[in-house]
Amino acid sequence: MIIAIDGPSGVGKSTVAKLIAARLGYRYLDSGALYRAVAWKVLTTGTDPAASDAIRGLCATTKLTVTSTAGGGMVVEVDERPLTDELRTPKVSSAASQVAALPDVRAWLLPVQQNFGRQAGVRGIVAEGRDMGTRVFPQAPVKFFLEGSSAERARRRHAEFVGAGQAADLEDTQRELEARDGRDRTRESAPLATAPDAVIIDTSRLTTDEVVERMLRIIERKTAALR
Ligand code: C5P
Questions:
Q1: Which of the residues 44, 87, 136, 145 has the least number of beta carbons within 10 Å of its own beta carbon?
Q2: Which of 15, 41, 97 to mutate to test the pocket of ligand 1 (most atoms within 8 A of CB)?
């Protein structure tokens, strides 16, 4: 069972995906963390995030592993180094959306995502990102597209930064988020788009619990129809 959740930055995808994965006993796939891991390697090696040839070479010599952790988490390791907070900086966010526009990077990460959860004992996965329902798991029987105004999404993202003790300005956060959305929606390779069979939910005026409950009801209905 694959549940695909797509949508722009800061719309609450990872929060609800983790909660749904925990409720259903499924694995959680944070596909954005993979693009962030590539961006982290690009930045730490001083590579230009737009230099496609250099980045193709970098991918070929990088060991990337993804593992699920107890309680619905996911850990990415680059060359055997686990990365967590390093992946959440504004610099890495911005570079991630630049490297994500490169077809070679997307092709390199495609099997990593599609093979995630293909192990004995895995009942299902909740995969979130930009192209889960359109490109990576087009066969997923349940797809969601979460939406929300950029002002509300920036407000939430800013509160996360502040909560994590990082210095951040609300206007800068909104500008950065809109720039990233623009790149994600307009790139040629697997742009952020709504799958025709996705259920669209506007999260702007809903609490996390309301979004999760609404999604769980839809999952229950759609999976019952498959039985
Ligand atoms: O979801 P998150 O904000 O962590 O993603 C970081 C960046 O990775 C996005 O802005 C987007 O450019 C890219 N991404 C993508 N496709 C995905 C997930 C993320 O292009 N499935």
A1: 44
A2: 97
Q: Quick one: pLDDT band at residue 164, thresholds 50, 70, 90?
A: confident
Q: Ligand 1: does its nearest atom lie under 6 Å from the Cβ of 134? A: no
Average pLDDT over residues 36-62: 96
203-216 tens-digit pLDDT = 999 999 999 999 99
What is the 116 CA–ligand 1 centroid distance (Å)?
17
Whether 131 is in the pocket of ligand 1, judged by its Cβ within 6 Å, is yes
Distance in Å from the first CA to the final CA of the chain: 12
Closest ligand 1 atom to Cα of 131: 21
C-alpha–C-alpha distance, residues 182 and 93, integer Å: 13
Instruction: Please state, in angstroms and rounded to a whole number, the distance separating the CA atoms of residues 10 and 155.
Output: 9
Q: How far is CA 120 from CA 7, 72, 226, in A?
A: 30, 17, 22
| pTM for the predicted model, two decimal places | 0.95
| pLDDT tens sequence across 123-163 | 999 999 999 999 999 999 999 999 999 999 999 999 988 99
pLDDT in the model for residue 165: 87
Residue 61 backbone phi and psi in degrees, to 5: -110, 10
* CA distances in angstroms from 15 to 119, 128, 172, 225, listed in the order given: 24, 10, 23, 27
Give the H or E element holding residue 156.
helix 150-163
